[in-house]
Design goal:
The protein is mainly alpha-helical. It is built from three helices and two strands; from the N terminus they run αβααβ. The chain has a two-stranded antiparallel sheet. The longest helix has 21 residues.
């Protein structure tokens, strides 16, 4: 249930942010983030659905602490 709530909040926030972008009321900020951690978080969001369908995901990612800057 917690994962569903988080996903719904994320969808709602994305929609609100899209509305702000369309009305030119949002300012994008460049931040540092780790894309490898981001990929792991995204896969974890779908963990329940993956297990229900007896699927497996294999990630072949570098074991580095990679930091990039983006918005």
């Amino acid at each position: 249930i917690e994962t569903c709530i988080q996903q719904q909040k994320s969808i709602t926030n994305d929609y609100l942010n899209l509305s702000k972008i369309e009305s030119n009321k949002i300012e994008l900020k460049s931040i540092e983030f780790n894309p490898i951690q981001l990929i792991h978080k995204i896969v974890k969001m779908f963990d329940i659905q993956i297990k229900r369908k007896n699927l497996k995901i294999y990630l072949c990612l570098p074991n580095k602490n990679l930091i990039i800057k983006g918005d």
